[in-house]
């Protein structure tokens, strides 16, 4: 049969059906190609040789060339060991075997050059190497494995069944021999040249059997680039197809609603960043394609007003608009601020949440389907089946990390055409991650805060300093400010966290006694109306202290609150700390964030706290978070397959990712369907990537 890369692995010399089964179940290796793509985790450097007189007591693995001059068996109580005297021109050492002595003794050749490799021990002035890996120098010189020895991913089961690293390395070598080391190129000549990349065959050879550190680096560079490049190619193609195929409503004009609001109601002038983003949105909604845009802006950067202006454009074109928020508190707050911004304008706005009375709900449903209701703000309740719009033109989703992709899609199903979608998030996503996760969305960025904000001062205090912290709070309250004290409630149902919160509330109430002080409390186990009541008292300034859980994390806007105390701050993640801190610093006053912790801190917790004290830049913080936790744990990444990278690393190879993305963009701009002859290798590889089923069906 003809061998190609999609040939089943059992046909490879040295594999056979049993080993093939194991490779399949343990490492997911089905075909020649899969084995070729099993890149080593690390390499043992076999390029350097050591002389016996250079050995030191703490050297790790060493490689030596020499000859065996004598062999003897040493008997002792529990059996015998085999000892070989091994010499090079500089000295003598001993090789020792405790097992397999007889078999080894028969195979050893005296006075013949060997390459030995292993760890040495130092005992009574003598160096010994137990169970060395050894090969005749003649054989070693012919072997592909001679330079840097690859260490492959493995599992306990594979090792137990005798599929050692050495064996895998050997069958990979068979693969290279079978294919004569020639593999189909997947990149175009211009890209290879411009990026200074080695060919596919060269890269594969040196990733498995690097002949030097330099060649290994070149191979890694090439394969990382290729991996990132094809991911970007897929994402960008997906976006192009969507723009081309998914038709959207056309918002031709900017009319009375927008202009009236902009000229007469808007209480401030927009920042340049807000203007820029608005332009990007207007361009999208005026094109014939559906908008799918992610709006990133740090907490307090003014996303709400951008959302409102966008909704008014929809209204100007005869469409309805919806704004969806993750919590009832936030939806209510959006509703209140939008109603007050629109005061005096003839726009109908309503709020729909889980606690909307069924009587009001009925009216709302009717108005929505007749079109008299223009803007609907709410929670998940918005995407219930009963809610039907007459003509929903745009759906805006705030704080996107709380909504899954499925929920986003659900909003689409309510129309003849999908509404435009604007997803707003205050979670700064590092650029590299955004490119991989949202490479198929358009991204807008508000990278500027409204003028006049003072940077929040952040401090880290230990629980033992609580008295001085409380003294500080009293001073701030005396100036008329308000204070948040937040407790971690990682899991709302966890009794212990809940007890911490209630203990905290009691002690705060003791230290800040009535009638001088009023303390509110809000947590997830309270009824919605009780929560709203407490929030309202705090908002009106009737209470000075809000003891809360992370319920208040998202979006709440109370400009007079100027101090955020975070209890057990070591238990929060960086992005959560950043979100919480963003609740203050919204007014004109100097604001503070105090991170309270115990003395016991993990190394990571220290980095998190130091980062918070050092910077208020959300992107800076997100980068640290990415480094600490790795991309897999950041929001939204779990659903995304793009992070199953074989060789590239989103953190370490960020620069290469940017390059790969711009090359992919350039390529598709010039040759969107990859039809140029020079791009044929890319097209072939791309087609295979997108048709895994077809590839599998080649296997008998
Ligand atoms: P976020 O982006 O976190 O949702 P908001 O939209 O809640 O931020 O805005 C935070 C505060 O800043 C609000 O009080 C809002 O009225 C105010 N704001 C927004 N844009 C501007 C601006 N251009 N100039 C001054 N204040 C602004
Ligand atoms: Mg907001």
Please give a structural write-up.
This protein has 700 residues and is an alpha/beta fold. Among the domains are: 48-146, Nucleic acid-binding proteins (OB fold (Dihydrolipoamide Acetyltransferase, E2P), Beta Barrel); 260-286 and 302-425, P-loop containing nucleotide triphosphate hydrolases (Rossmann fold, 3-Layer(aba) Sandwich), CATH 3.40.50.300; 457-615, P-loop containing nucleotide triphosphate hydrolases (Rossmann fold), CATH 3.40.50. Strand 21, helix 20 (574-581) and strand 22 (592-597) form a beta-alpha-beta unit. It is globular, with a radius of gyration of 33 Å. The termini are close together. Magnesium ion binds at residues 303-304, 398, 555.
CATH topology of the domain at 457-615: Rossmann fold
CATH architecture of the domain at 457-615: 3-Layer(aba) Sandwich
What would you give as the CATH superfamily of the domain at 457-615? P-loop containing nucleotide triphosphate hydrolases
Bound molecules: adenosine-5'-diphosphate, magnesium ion
């Amino acid at each position: 049969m003809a061998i190609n890369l999609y040939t089943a692995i059992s046909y490879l010399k040295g594999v056979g059906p049993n080993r093939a089964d194991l490779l399949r179940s343990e490492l997911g290796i089905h075909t020649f190609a899969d084995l070729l793509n099993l890149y080593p985790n690390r390499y043992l450097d076999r390029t350097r040789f050591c002389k016996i007189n250079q050995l030191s007591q703490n050297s790790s693995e060493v490689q030596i060339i020499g000859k065996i001059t004598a062999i003897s068996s040493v008997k002792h109580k529990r059996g015998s060991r085999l000892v070989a005297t091994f010499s090079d021109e500089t000295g003598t050492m001993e090789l020792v075997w405790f097992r397999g002595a007889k078999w080894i003794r028969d195979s050893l050749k005296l006075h013949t050059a060997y390459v030995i490799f292993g760890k040495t021990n130092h005992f009574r002035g003598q160096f010994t190497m137990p169970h060395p890996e050894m090969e005749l120098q003649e054989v070693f010189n012919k072997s592909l494995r001679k330079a840097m020895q690859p260490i492959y991913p493995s599992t306990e089961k594979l090792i137990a069944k005798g599929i050692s690293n050495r064996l895998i390395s050997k069958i990979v070598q068979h693969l290279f021999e079978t294919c004569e080391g020639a593999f189909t190129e997947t990149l175009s000549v211009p890209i290879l040249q411009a990026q200074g990349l080695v060919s596919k065959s060269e890269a594969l050879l040196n990733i498995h059997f690097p002949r030097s550190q330099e060649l290994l680096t070149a191979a890694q560079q090439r394969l990382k680039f290729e991996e990132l490049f094809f991911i970007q190619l897929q994402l960008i193609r997906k976006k192009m197809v969507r723009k081309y195929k998914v038709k959207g409503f056309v918002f031709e004009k900017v009319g009375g609603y927008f202009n009236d609001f902009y000229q007469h109601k808007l209480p401030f002038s927009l920042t340049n960043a807000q203007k820029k983003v608005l332009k990007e949105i207007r361009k999208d909604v005026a094109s014939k394609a559906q908008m799918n845009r992610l709006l990133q802006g740090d907490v307090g950067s003014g996303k709400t007003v951008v959302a409102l202006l966008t909704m008014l454009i929809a209204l100007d074109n005869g469409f309805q608009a919806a704004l969806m928020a993750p919590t009832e508190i936030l939806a209510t707050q959006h509703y209140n601020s939008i109603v007050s911004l629109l005061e005096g304008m003839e726009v109908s706005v309503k709020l729909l949440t889980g606690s909307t009375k069924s009587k009001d709900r009925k009216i709302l449903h009717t108005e929505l389907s007749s079109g008299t209701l223009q803007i609907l703000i709410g929670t998940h309740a918005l995407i219930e089946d009963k809610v039907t719009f007459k003509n929903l033109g745009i759906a805006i989703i705030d704080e996107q990390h709380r909504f899954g992709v499925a929920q986003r899609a659900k909003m689409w199903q309510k129309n003849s055409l999908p509404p435009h979608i604007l997803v707003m998030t205050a979670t700064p996503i590092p650029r590299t991650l955004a490119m991989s996760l949202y490479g198929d969305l358009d991204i807008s960025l508000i990278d500027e805060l409204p003028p006049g904000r003072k940077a929040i001062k952040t401090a880290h205090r230990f629980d033992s300093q609580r008295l001085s912290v409380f003294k500080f709070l009293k001073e701030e309250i005396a100036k008329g400010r308000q204070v948040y004290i937040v407790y971690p409630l990682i899991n709302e149902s966890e009794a212990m966290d809940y007890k911490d919160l209630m203990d905290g509330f009691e002690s705060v109430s003791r230290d800040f006694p009535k009638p001088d002080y009023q303390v509110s409390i809000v947590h997830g186990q309270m009824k919605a109306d009780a929560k709203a009541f407490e929030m309202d008292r705090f908002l009106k300034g009737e209470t000075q202290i809000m003891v809360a859980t992370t319920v208040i994390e998202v979006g709440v806007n109370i400009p007079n609150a100027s101090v955020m105390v975070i209890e057990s701050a070591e238990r929060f993640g960086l992005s959560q700390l950043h979100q919480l801190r963003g609740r203050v610093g919204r007014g004109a006053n100097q604001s503070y964030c105090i991170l309270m912790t115990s003395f016991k801190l993990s190394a990571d917790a220290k980095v998190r706290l130091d980062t918070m004290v050092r910077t208020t830049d959300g992107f800076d913080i997100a980068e640290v978070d990415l480094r600490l936790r790795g991309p897999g744990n950041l929001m939204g990444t779990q659903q995304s397959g793009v992070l199953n990278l074989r060789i590239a690393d989103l953190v370490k190879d960020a620069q290469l990712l940017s390059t790969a993305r711009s090359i992919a963009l350039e390529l598709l701009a010039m040759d969107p369907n990859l039809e140029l002859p020079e791009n044929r290798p890319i097209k072939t590889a791309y087609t295979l990537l997108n048709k895994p089923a077809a590839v599998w069906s080649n296997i008998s």
